[in-house]
Amino acid sequence: LASSSKRSPCNGSVPNAMQRPADLIGQEVILVSFLLLLLVWFLNREFEVSYRLHYHGDVEADLHRTKIQSMRDQADWLLRNIIPYHVAEQLKVSQSYSKNHDSGGVIFASIVNFSEFYEENYEGGKECYRVLNELIGDFDELLSKPHYSSIEKIKTIGATYMAASGLNPSQCQDSNHPHGHLQTLFEFAKEMMRVVDDFNNNMLWFNFKLRIGFNHGPLTAGVIGTTKLLYDIWGDTVNIASRMDTTGVECRIQVSEESYRILSKMGYDFDYRGTVNVKGKGQMKTYLYPKCMDNGVVPHHQLSISPDIRVQVDGSIGRSPTDEIANLVPSVHSADKVAHGTDNSETKDVLPSAKKLQKEAVRAEERCRFGKATEKTDCEEAGPEEVNELTKLNISKSV
Questions:
Q1: pTM over 0.85
Q2: Which residues are catalytic?
Q3: Is 4Fe-4S tagged as a keyword (predicted)?
Q4: In this predicted structure, what is the pLDDT of residue 2?
Q5: Domain tally for the chain?
Q6: How far is CA 113 from CA 118, 208, 368, in A?
Q7: What is the DSSP letter of 379?
Q8: Which residues of the chain are under the pLDDT cut of 70?
């Protein structure tokens, strides 16, 4: 025991009590390192998840924002197609809108022979209204040009297109040209004539005739209702413009005397038509555009009288073109007198042919006027040939 107690400590091993703290420290270091790595991974994962969620939220927000903006633009587009832009801006501030205008221009453009074209028996008239929709769409496309930005489409009434100018105060502030918008409106009316001509040329067998009434003067514009808003104009100016259309002439623009004074100073040449009886106004002087040439031919458009009325230069109501063609053939009574007064068999043979030519002339004229020519050259060939035959017949009878 004494020898073992005297053994050198350098030759002996470290006690177990001294080895345990070192082992524990190493294990703790490893554990702490592992926990640190786990914490870093967890934080990194949490950051990645939050970043992805944030990115997904931003994408969803952008999509919703884009959708809302698209819906807002669509609503604005619909609103501006129902009412003018300057009126829509005013309605954002107040709940109502009405304004008096000292000099607004108004036109009514009617397709006078659309009722002859319309057939309800064929698909309930849907095909006919599809054709009308295409033509009205061409008018709207023409109106969308920047040159006609001062013109507002008011509405369509059946086959009648109504538009007005001078309703936006911001576009009528030029004191040097206070009636400039009237010239723009008149040019638009002329272009509507050209659009109808192009439509007839592109669509086989269509012969639509446009009749336009033009007037200007004081009027009132406003929005009616709080739901399904309706922008409209009122006043005697609007009523007279409507009468200029209903008493007008096919393929020509009829203007009132007041509008004639303004437009003639702008270089437009008119024909004085005479006086027309306007409901509520009595007799009114009217003028027609375009002006006839010396040979009586209307440039660019064929002059065709409205079937319900024909006003002569002196203001009296004349007979329709059908009656004039019928006058080329002697009446039945005069024909009977000729037949009884002479024994000429040649004259008796002429009477049935005269009646036949009269009926054919009337039918050809009606087909030409209403656009129902059975052949492409019906309006060009049938009428003149029959008139020549009838003229020869009258000459032979008078001799």
A1: no
A2: 243, 279
A3: no
A4: 46
A5: 3
A6: 9, 6, 11
A7: I
A8: 1-20, 119-124, 173-175, 204, 293-399
